[in-house]
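In this section we turn from sequence analysis to structure. A common task in structural bioinformatics is to predict how a protein folds when a small molecule is present, because the ligand can shape the pocket around it. The inputs are simple: the amino acid sequence and a SMILES string for the ligand, here zinc ion. Study the lines below before reading on.
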Amino acid sequence: MNGCACCLLECDMDVCVLHMSVTKENTYFVDILVSLKESNEIGNASQDIRITEPFLAEGVMHTDGNEFLGKFKTPNAKMYLSHPWKSYISHVGQDYEGGADEFRLKLCKYAVEMGFEFDYVANEHKRITASCIKKDIEGCPWRVHASICSANGHFIIWRLNNQHICIGRIRERKSGMMTSKIVCSILVEQLRSNPHIKPIQIVDDFKKNYGLDVSYYNAWYGKEMVMTMVHGDDVLSYQKLGWYVEEIRKSNPGSHCVLECDPNTSHFRHLFIAFRGSIEGFNYCRPLLFLDGTFVKNKYKGTLLGATGKNGNQGFFPLAFALVDVEDEANWTWFLMNLSTVLFEDDRTITFILDRHKGLLQSVANVFPTSPHGFCIYHIEKNIKTTHILLALGKIFVRKWSNYSRIVLIHPLQKCST
Ligand SMILES: [Zn+2]
């Protein structure tokens, strides 16, 4: 300020005078150095206060300290998607159809948006009471009480004191009330359309769209909660496999289902399923089956083995699939033995297309000794790249397969096929 490089602020009145002075001089930034009076320790909190509005009338002073905190917001501040959360707790009689869970979730979102924290005085299925976390320290009277309405099962706010007197209420990017449940509630629809979104992307999206800092753990756990909601619980799914197989046998006779568990521990080992519709439909497809396995990326991992044909439209025709622990010769043999049961009535000679997995090669030779087999060109290219380290050659191989000199490729291909 003109004529005054620095001044001492000892009380609220000094702050107000400073505020009026800088407003009058159209000064937009002031450095404030905060020190502890008792210990004479000088803090390093230097804040830029952006003053966006003049006082309502010169000489009229604000009495609520939180009014000053509000000045940090710029008039052109971005409207975040969390803005409607302000209305989640507003009046007595407010109705929450989702019961206690919905009320808890909305209470947390409201606290995040309004910039305060609360404690549960009572947190039960039928009644919830919460009070401001600064109730004991500063005597803040904010309190809400809601309970279940026996007529319709809704949660209703019966008592609400929505006034705070505590200091320091400001919406912050990092809120103590931010939980993985809030992340979960927001991610449900997004994960249905894009289940492969990564936690780090969720953290970035929250920062950009909600102006909130979410920890990596909350993002990861929130995603896990959504995946459980959308796809079901892995543990329950495995527990229900026995029931599922029995139901297929009852409701879809002619299907081939085999569930094997460890006889000593009852732990899951194998599951083979070929539906009757697929078995009968394959009679009308060309006698060609592609065998391959892929990793299962759920909590318990494992491998999904599949036998897939081609229909008249050059599309996939899934015939049978199996869930096993690993892709090895024993599991491929078990799979092909079950597949041979399915193909028992099909007297055509089936040609198998393989990916050159060693266990699979041996298993096909053992279970279907008279069936011809071929190799998938995609896997041959991968094998050339990895086993012969001919990266550049592999690219040319794909692009100019028809006319590329076989003299150059014949040697690695021969090695691949042995
Ligand atoms: Zn309060």
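The chain has five domains: 12-72, 88-177, 178-232, 248-375, 379-417. As an exercise, try to locate the residues that line the zinc ion site and compare them with your own expectations.
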